[in-house]
Design a protein that fits this description.
11% strand, 3-stranded antiparallel beta sheet, mainly alpha
């Protein structure tokens, strides 16, 4: 009986905690999320891959990378390997300016360590690296709560970064039409409730507007985060033609082996 009471209390505590949870990526806002990001379009042949690499925009290259990640096991393993290669250990070095007491220095130092511990840097940045390698960029919101810190991933199709602030940090621009794709008003309100007040305020400003260009909003660099390798292009995308050639060569080798086996069977079969 006591065990049943404890289970009931834990369940009640978990249900209360759920009200404070936020979706850390786009899949959290779908009733039945996909196992991974869908690949748009059909199979890429070699000519299409070459044309996309030569003339494609980052969005086209991103879809090509997603296709390769789904189709080529080597491409998937390379991205997974390199995204987990770094340990993301960090060092905090205090820089003292002026006359500050030792207690204040220790207090600020401990606060800095506590802040970094809450960020779960090894876990979060391995995932961010994985996304950058696969999609060419990672866009998200840096969320600070009383009991922790998290990165809330934003759908890459609704984000861009064209400018930097005075400190050289990339400025995130988010397309608020993301909320228009949600047809159910109750679902839209559920999604909005997980976003910062700044985003909700901007949505209220433009939700009735039909001006498409008015949907883009710049987020403060203290909130919006952008990670990329300089050109917003998936890092290993240029290797995809060779992977397709390897795949085709393996198919041809399999066909040759089947032909040789067929010849062998015909030659060895007794003819009456």
């Amino acid at each position: 009986m006591a065990e049943e009471v404890n289970v009931s209390k834990r369940l009640e505590s978990f249900e209360k905690a759920m009200t404070k949870m936020i979706g850390t990526n786009d899949k959290a806002y779908h009733r039945y999320p996909d196992s991974s990001n869908p690949v748009l379009g059909n199979f890429f042949d070699l000519d299409e891959i070459k044309n996309t690499l030569a003339y494609g925009e980052p969005a086209s290259l991103r879809e090509l990378s997603r296709f390769a990640y789904r189709y080529f096991g080597i491409y998937e393993r390379v991205i997974n390997y390199y995204s987990r290669l770094l340990l993301f250990d960090y060092v905090v070095t205090p820089k003292v300016k002026g006359n500050i007491s030792k207690n204040k220095i220790l207090n600020k130092y401990n606060n800095a360590l506590s802040f970094l511990d809450k960020m779960s840097i090894p876990v979060n940045f391995q995932y961010i690296t994985y996304k950058v390698l696969k999609n060419g960029a990672y866009y998200g919101l840096f969320r600070v709560f009383d009991d922790g810190i998290t990165f809330q991933e934003l759908p890459v199709e609704y984000c861009r970064s064209r400018y930097k602030d005075s400190r050289g940090i990339d400025i995130l621009e988010f397309n608020l039409s993301y909320f228009r794709k949600i047809t159910s008003e109750s679902d839209r309100q559920e999604v909005l409730s997980s976003f910062p007040k700044e985003v909700v305020k901007q949505w209220e400003r433009v939700k009735n507007s039909k001006n498409i260009t008015n949907n883009w909003v710049e987020l403060d660099t203290k909130v919006g985060v952008v990670f990329h390798f300089g050109d917003f292009v998936p890092y290993f995308v240029n290797a995809i033609p060779e992977l397709l050639r390897l795949d085709e060569a393996q198919d041809r080798e399999g066909d040759r082996e089947a032909e040789e086996l067929q010849k062998l069977l015909i030659n060895k079969m007794p003819i009456s």
